[in-house]
Amino acid sequence: MEEWRRSVWRRVLDEFRMVEAEVSRMEDELFRLMREAEERSGCMTPLYNLYESGDEVRLTADLPGASKEEIGLIAGEDYFRVEAPCRSPLRGGEGRRYVLHLRLPAKIDPKSVRARYKDGVLEVVAKKKVAGYRIKID
Known about the structure:
Elements: H1 2-41, E1 43-44, E2 48-53, E3 56-62, E4 72-76, E5 79-86, E6 96-103, E7 114-118, E8 121-127
Parallel strand pairs: 1-6
Antiparallel strand pairs: 2-3, 3-8, 4-5, 5-6, 7-8
C-alpha cells in the first residue's frame, strides 16, 4: 500500500512539474511578444507597482528621462493611463514613449487622485470610492 501511495504522489508531482514548465514557456512567449510589440510601436511599458491598502490605491512607475510637464496621467473610476516620452539611452533613444494602461483592483474617486514625480519615479495615490455611508440616526 505504501508503494502505491509513493507512485501516485510521484505521478502527481510529475504533472505539476509539466504544468509549471508549460506556464514558464507561456510566460517566455508572452514577454517575447510584448518586446516585439514595443519595438514595432515605439511604446514601452515602464516598470511599475500597483497595490491597494485600506482606503487607497497606489501606483509607482519608473519614467526615467521624462519631465513632469511631459507626463500625461488620466484617471477613471477603474483605470490609470500614463504616457511620457522615453529619453533613456539604455532604452533606444528618441521617439520612444512609455505607455501604461492599468485596470485598478478597486473603484476610485478620480477627483481624489494626487500625483508627484521625483527622481524619475511617478507616484499616484487615489482614495477608493465609497459604496455607501453609514448614517447616524438621532
